[in-house]
Design a protein that fits this description.
The structure holds 3 protein chains of 3 kinds. By secondary structure, chain A is an alpha/beta fold. Chain A has 12 helices and 16 strands. In chain A, 41% of the residues lie in helices and 20% in strands. In chain A, a hairpin with a 2-residue loop joins β11 and β12. The radius of gyration of chain A is 22 Å and the shape is elongated. Chain A starts with a helix and ends in an 18-residue tail after the last strand. In chain A, 58% of the residues are buried. By secondary structure, chain C is mainly alpha-helical. Chain C has one domain. In chain C, 74% of the residues lie in helices and 3% in strands. Chain C is built from 12 helices and 2 strands, in the order ααααββαααααααα. Classes of the chains: A alpha/beta, B mainly alpha, C mainly alpha.
Chain lengths: 396, 336, 291
């Protein structure tokens, strides 16, 4: 027991000495980033990390922030809220970063937000899309991406103007993203006078969706809306085809349905599937296409909207650092409030609307898989291809 | 008194810790350690002493956590009331839980608790009107500083360890051990095994439930995947017990410290040391190594478990004499 | 009616695959009394073996059985020889140490795979992955039907092996009474090594057959481990025919539960059945049929 006490003492001593290494006033400006670099979400954490690093290299090459360079301190949240919290505690108290960004999954981002608000360090949420993140009245939390309830904005106008459906079935995965997205979408559908015939969740990782899909088939909805992660999305579409389930249109609620792996895994079953989307390299923002090409050249793999969000977040943070009167969390927060700039992800301005505060408001798009390419089809003024509707039935 | 001198010294160190170490990050890590001491002690009482291996600690942890969260979310009462109430509710839950599972023995009991753990997680996910489902519940923290949380966690951890110490020295403790060693023999000696197994489970569940309620208050956010996690709570509780030492009072404390330290060292790449090294040397080799090491935190833990089960089956505390001998042996060899 | 029939077909076909997963587990649990909580992880390894063969060498997943089953046989034997058998000699407070050991093994297997392949989703899309036959409006999946046939064939083969061969008889002897078997000149340790290898090879077959219709990532093992022990408890320990019944029952329960209660209850239904069987029908179907 004594030895154990001694051991604790030693560890504490080491801890104290490590803690003593505070940062010097000059030198690079530190920006703290929390991303899932291991665990199930690591694939997207990696894309975001690469994008953050790419942006920072560009910014530093172009002279940095008022002569000082930016240094990224990237911590792994492993996709878990408590670990994310450990990581952000470390960034704030040990590394004393004046500003935070990142935050991939909604639950992790949410946990980080609470810490950021409490410790009064501004946090620019990159990807976490649960609505409530910006609905708490937190003044140190900013969000760049669209909240999940707004994902189907473009879809709703398309439905209203073109499809005019009467009935809908909604399937969703039991995650924060799925459950809250499905609830909001069902409410909107009912307000628009549609009848929700079926609204059902499932656990990620199911092998056989046929029992669920056969119910959809029996209910005969005008269209099927699905909020799913990429592999479940592919299975849902493949098994719909296997069951010969053909509503007027299949719509994905973003996330899994926008990723290249979806098309690869669903094969022919992906054809003509619509999906709500936040970004593609074909959106009409300056730098969007350039970002995509540069990323592909540098990392030899394609990037997608998560990467664009990260890339844009970095520029937003750098812009705030440039304009901040003093490089303290408070000064940077004040600079972020007055952000008004264009990024590869779209215009960024943190405004208050509805219940939300310091939320960036961006349009969303409706895209469709056509011959293995995700084409923007709505709104019409930015469409890259005309939409294919009504969806042809499965050919046998 | 002498046998407690180490423990008292340790307690003194723990009491002054937040005053000596102002760094919120280390305070946070120590709070996690203390939380795991409580969970590990709870697991150890039912599994290590009474011999009923609990694979579903997360069921109690989650119920404790949700009690606290729902009090503040639904009733607008401070989530701190979740501590006493969470203990009461987990206690009330442990009785039927035990009634269901204690008909089974050995590994079947373990499997049944594992199944109950998963059933609870599913219920919490599906019952959206009560639990908000995977959207989770946010509770604003009461304190900005970590120090109050630290002392509350310390209080719970010390209470848990003391409870185990007192119980195992009492008559109950002997009943527990006799059930573990041979349930039929215990039964034939007139020990009401079901009753004493239930007593052990109820005490254990209270400790774990308290830890859960504290988790809600401290973390401020819970969802079913986090608090009912089979992997991150139930199995982690077992690992804390095994590594520290099954059936020893101080084992869970040692196990909790080792687990949090190992996880955090790997996750942060040796507290950022490796990251600094790689950016200082600019060597791609060190950078890749850093990446691999930070990815290896679960792997290292799995290997540690295998090693401990094979070579230190009674944990670091239980096999401390063996460990000490081996370490000394190595040191002697090194000097030769 | 269509809904009912389609659910029935889906449940039975999925049940065939489950049976194969449970078959290995029932052998391991029956002979060694070990609850192998790394069972799903072994299946995951087999799926990665299949994936590598398919992706880098263009081997059809069905031919990959020839490689995946023997390699998992070897892996299972190594695990038993070097990690589980030595535990018999270790003095420990808890006899459940073996179960806990398999948890550790499962963690290591998962993380090693994550190290090599990262967490990315992988899949092996074949020309027949989505192929179906329509029989009277009911869609029948081609790859799942094949899995069902293979499961039946392997079960029968295993049944024959256990009844008719010397090795099979030795395995049964060890499962009934290891000490008596030892006295009869059977090397129980060796038998356990072989049994673990066999169990692993069987779950490898399940993994390989599952890959074309499913996908793959390192954490896939957990849910299948859970299903495996549910099936085994349902069917009865050590009962090969029981595993088929257990697998199909679980498949049907999941399918009908998904259709008539809700898809989100899918996993829960299996777990509830598991608890009910443990409490009210210990011994599973084996006790009812005496097979």
């Amino acid at each position: 027991m004594k030895r154990f006490a001694f051991l604790v003492g030693v560890v504490l001593a080491v801890g104290v000495s490590l803690a003593g290494t505070a940062l010097a006033a000059e030198g690079p400006i530190k920006v703290g980033i929390v991303l899932p670099l291991t665990g199930e979400q690591a694939q997207f954490g990696e894309i975001e990390r690469n994008s953050f690093q790419m942006a920072v290299e560009e910014i530093n090459k172009a002279g940095g922030v008022n002569g000082r360079t930016i240094e990224l301190l990237i911590e792994d949240d492993t996709g878990k809220p408590d670990v994310g919290r450990s990581a952000v505690e470390k960034l704030i108290s040990r590394d004393q970063v004046p500003v935070l960004t990142g935050g991939y999954s909604s639950s992790v981002a949410y946990a980080i937000c609470a810490v950021a608000q409490q410790r009064q360090v501004p946090f620019v949420v990159t990807t976490g899309s649960a609505d409530k993140i910006t609905e708490q009245g937190w003044d140190y939390v900013f969000r760049l991406c669209q909240p999940v309830s707004e994902y189907p904005k473009a879809l709703n106008s398309f439905l209203g103007e073109v499809v005019k459906p009467k009935t809908v079935a909604i399937l969703y995965e039991n995650t924060l993203f799925g459950q809250s997205g499905a609830k909001d979408f069902a409410k909107e559908c009912e307000e628009a006078g549609m009848k929700v015939l079926l609204k059902e969740g499932y656990e990620h990782g199911a092998i056989d969706f046929k029992p669920l899909l056969i119910k959809v088939k029996a209910a005969k909805p005008d269209f099927l809306y699905m909020i799913s992660y990429v592999m479940d999305a592919a299975l849902l579409m493949r098994q719909s085809k296997e069951l010969d389930l053909s509503p007027k249109l299949f719509v994905g609620g973003g996330a899994g349905f926008t990723l290249p792996e979806f098309a690869k895994n669903a094969g022919e079953a992906a054809e003509n599937v619509f999906t709500a989307a936040l970004w593609s390299e074909l959106v009409p923002y300056p730098g969007a296409k350039a970002y995509y090409e540069k990323y592909v050249e540098k990392f030899k793999t394609p990037t997608e909207y998560h990467g664009a969000e990260a890339y844009a977040s970095m520029y937003v943070v750098a812009d705030a650092l440039k304009r901040a009167k003093e490089l303290t969390p408070k000064g940077i927060r004040e600079a972020l409030v007055t952000t008004d700039m264009m990024t590869a992800f779209g215009p960024v301005k943190f405004i208050a609307y509805g219940k939300k505060k310091q939320q960036n408001s961006l349009p969303t798009y409706l895209m469709q898989w056509q011959k293995g390419v995700l084409e923007t089809v709505w709104p019409k003024n930015v469409a890259t291809k005309p939409y294919v509707y009504p969806t042809p039935a499965w050919t046998k | 008194m002498k046998q407690y001198s180490g423990a008292i010294l340790l307690l003194a160190v723990m009491l002054v810790f937040p005053l000596a170490v102002q760094d919120a990050y280390y305070q946070h890590l120590m709070i996690l350690v203390l939380l795991w001491v409580a969970i590990g002690s709870g697991w150890n009482l039912i599994s290590g002493y009474a011999g009923q291996v609990l694979f579903g600690a997360a069921a109690f942890f989650g119920v404790g956590a949700y009690t606290a969260a729902l009090l503040s979310h639904k009733l607008g009462i401070s989530a701190w009331w979740g501590l006493p109430l969470g203990a009461v509710i987990t206690f009330a839950l442990a009785l039927p839980f035990g009634w269901v599972c204690f008909r089974l023995r050995g590994p079947y009991f373990a499997l049944a608790t594992l199944a109950l753990n998963e059933i609870f997680r599913h219920i919490a996910t599906i019952w959206e009107s009560l639990t908000e489902g995977m959207v989770g519940i946010l509770v604003m923290q009461t304190f900005v500083s970590k120090v109050p949380y630290y002392y509350i966690a310390l209080g719970i951890a010390v209470a848990s360890v003391l409870t185990v110490e007192i119980v195992v020295r009492s008559r109950w403790g002997y009943y527990f051990v006799s059930i573990r060693e041979d349930q039929d023999a215990a039964e034939s000696l007139g020990i009401d095994t079901l009753r004493y197994k239930s007593v052990a489970l109820c005490l254990s569940s209270c400790m774990i439930g308290l830890a859960g309620a504290l988790y809600t208050n401290y973390m401020g956010f819970i969802d079913p995947r986090v608090v009912f996690s089979l992997h991150d709570v139930s199995i982690a509780a077992i690992l804390v017990g095994i590594i520290g030492g099954v059936g020893t009072v101080s084992g869970p404390a040692v196990g909790a410290f080792i687990m949090v330290a190992v996880m955090e060292i790997f996750r942060s790449g040796g507290f950022g040391f490796l990251g600094k090294l790689s950016s200082a040397t600019g060597s791609p080799f060190v950078a890749t190594l850093t990446k691999y090491i930070s990815e290896a935190h679960v792997l290292s833990f799995g290997l540690l478990v295998i090693f401990v089960i094979l070579y230190l089956p009674n944990g670091v505390v239980g096999d401390w004499p063996i460990l000490k001998k081996k370490l000394l042996f190595w040191r002697r060899q090194a000097t030769v | 009616m269509e809904v009912f029939l389609q659910t029935l077909v889906a449940g039975i076909l999925k049940g065939g695959l489950y049976a194969l997963i449970g078959l290995g587990m029932t052998l391991i649990m029956g002979v060694m009394g070990i609850i192998n909580l790394a069972h799903g992880q072994l299946m995951m390894i087999a799926m990665y073996v299949t994936y590598v063969l398919f992706h880098y060498m263009g081997v059809d997943p069905y031919y990959a059985l020839i490689v995946s089953m023997p390699s998992l046989f070897v892996l299972g034997m190594l695990i038993q020889r070097f990690l589980l058998n030595p535990l018999m000699k270790v003095e420990a407070i808890l006899p459940e140490n073996q179960v806990l050991m398999t948890v550790g093994i499962g963690m290591v297997l998962t993380e090693v795979i994550r190290f090599i392949f990262s967490s990315n989703y992988l899949s092996a899309q074949t020309s027949y992955s989505s192929e179906v036959r329509f029989v009277g409006g009911i869609s029948i999946s081609y790859p799942l039907s094949i899995a069902f046939v293979v499961a039946t064939v392997l079960t029968l083969a295993l049944f024959w092996f256990l009844i008719k061969t010397d090795l099979g008889r030795s395995i049964r002897a060890v499962s009934q009474d290891p000490e008596a078997a030892e006295l009869m000149g059977i090397n129980a340790e060796r038998i356990k090594i072989i049994t673990m290898g066999l169990g692993s090879a069987l779950v490898a077959a399940a993994g390989t057959l599952l890959l074309p219709i499913y996908y793959l990532y390192p954490d896939i093992g957990g849910p299948f481990t859970r299903r495996a022990f549910v099936i085994t408890i349902l069917g009865g320990l050590g009962s090969t025919v029981g595993a088929i019944f257990g697998g199909v029952t679980l498949g049907l329960a999941e399918a009908f539960g998904s259709t008539y209660i809700g898809m989100e209850f899918e996993e829960m239904i299996g777990l509830v059945i598991f608890l009910l069987v443990l409490l009210f029908l210990p011994g599973g179907f084996k006790r009812l049929t005496k097979v």
